[in-house]
Specification:
Elements: H1 3-18, E1 23-25, E2 31-38, E3 42-48, E4 51-55, E5 60-66, E6 70-71, H2 75-86, E7 93-99, H3 102-107, E8 113-124, E9 127-139, E10 145-149, E11 153-156, H4 163-172, E12 181-192
Antiparallel strand pairs: 1-4, 1-12, 2-3, 2-12, 3-6, 4-5, 5-7, 7-8, 8-9, 9-10, 10-12, 11-12
Helix pairs in contact: 2-4
Length: about 200
């Protein structure tokens, strides 16, 4: 092989391998929220406080949500959701897996943003469901990536065998209704893991 060509090929391989790095979730700068509706018209915002995740160099992104970290602002409600809805002793986490187009991420420069509809697999309560997630991806100044929903994603309780748990919550709280479909939003910051 021509030495000049061999040098060029080596440089090209090095560039393609490092065109963008792996990123890990910055938990202090990340949020996952959902809204519940009770009595047909009363909305309440809840969040999860323990998250982990990463984006690999091939564009594969994983988010893990510790369901026992649910925070509704009312301790007894949190306990009931953990026990009767999420059944956290059997199903400790929810997982969201997404595959971003690797070439899109590699081509992004600081300050660039892209709006993407990506295929996602949501695993919750022993069930896995394929969805399309509308996400905005922003390349940040620190070499990281911010990923957020540009519109809420609806999670249907029936898809994850959660309707029984919702019925139990409704009974315990003596409520006439609790919606079985909830909008979820994420705002996630990922930091460059490359030294």
């Amino acid at each position: 092989m021509n030495p000049l060509y061999r040098t060029f090929a080596l440089c090209a391989l090095t560039f393609s391998a490092s065109a963008f790095a792996d990123w890990s979730l910055d938990v202090k700068q990340s949020t996952v929220n959902f809204v519940s509706i009770k009595k047909d018209s009363v909305g309440e915002v809840h969040q999860f406080k323990q998250l982990s995740g990463n984006i690999d160099a091939d564009g594969t992104a994983t988010l893990s949500v510790a369901l026992a970290s649910v925070d509704s602002g009312i301790a007894i409600r949190d306990e009931r959701m953990q026990k009767f809805l999420f059944e956290t002793t059997k199903f400790a986490t929810a997982e969201i897996n997404v595959k971003f187009p690797a070439k899109v991420l590699a081509a992004m420069k600081t300050g660039d943003s892209r709006v993407l509809d990506v295929d996602a697999t949501v695993s919750l309560h022993g069930k896995s469901v394929e969805q399309t997630w509308p996400l905005t991806v922003i390349k940040t100044k620190a070499g990281g990536v911010r990923v957020l929903t540009h519109k809420p994603v609806l999670i249907n309780a029936a898809d994850f065998d959660l309707t029984g748990g919702i019925a139990k919550l409704k009974e315990l709280a003596a409520l006439p209704s609790i919606a079985t479909s909830v909008p979820v939003t994420v705002d996630l910051s990922f930091s460059d893991k490359t030294p």
